[in-house]
What we know:
The protein is mostly helical. It has one domain (2-300). It is built from 15 helices and no strands.
Amino acid sequence: MTGNLSLKRFRLDLVDRITILYILLTALLLVTGTGIYENVATHYMVRAGMLLFILLMASIAKRYPGKLTNTLHYLYPLIFISYFFKETDYLNNLFMDDLDPVIISFEKSFFGFMPSEAFSGCCPQVWFSELMHLGYFSFYLLMLFFIVYYAIKLPSLAAKRIFVFYQSFYLFYLIFIFFPSAGPQYFLPGSETVVPGGYFFTDIMNKILFYGDGSTGAFPSSHVGMTWLMMYFLFRDSRKMFFLWLIPAILLTFSTVYIKAHYAVDVIAGIIIVPGLIVLGKSVYGYFRVYNDHAKKYSSA
């Protein structure tokens, strides 16, 4: 009885639960890698802090329901995602080495050359480089817009859409951990990693990549995959917003190869995986909803 009463103080929604599940799964990886990973205690402490923060957010959402608290409740995992991405560089290579040689070989066989090498070389204009970096930067704006838009404008769809959004991110990160690849900017020879300079957004992206990126997460491209997953939902739910973001989404898709964050085959794989992520996300969401409804009936009985 006491346990049930204490749980009622919180409102752990499905986004909370899938986030907690990812935290626990990667904690198991840390246990598996004991003696291999360095400074493991820091990662355990970060996870403990995340769990406490999730309970705090759930408590606030339970006590002060409304659009503002709901939106904040949906937004907080974005902070975690930036940490989780960089951490995949720490967690990967536990089971295998980077797969970049395999990806490069496939890219050369498929295209007859390497677009990730040639694209920036054939379009070195400053304005084009700036456009590509702006396209890459738009990914962060699209994510923020996607969550806020659904939370405020389409609240009836928000829980399902945002759940699929976060679950898909976590699945990408698990792929990066178990099937690691660094990407052209880290794996190619130094002379091949140079990207033409631009202006404002080039500098911004260089700083973001310097502090928030790592030699991880190339295949498949989560930037491209998540972009077109969001675009699919916008197409289904708001054609106006879909067409508003269509050009940035297209620019972003090409920019990942231009700035050498991804091989061209990473982009193709990122697009191909989207339907599977959507189907899986909807299935898991439905399962959680049924389980949650049964739990509520049991606790109220």
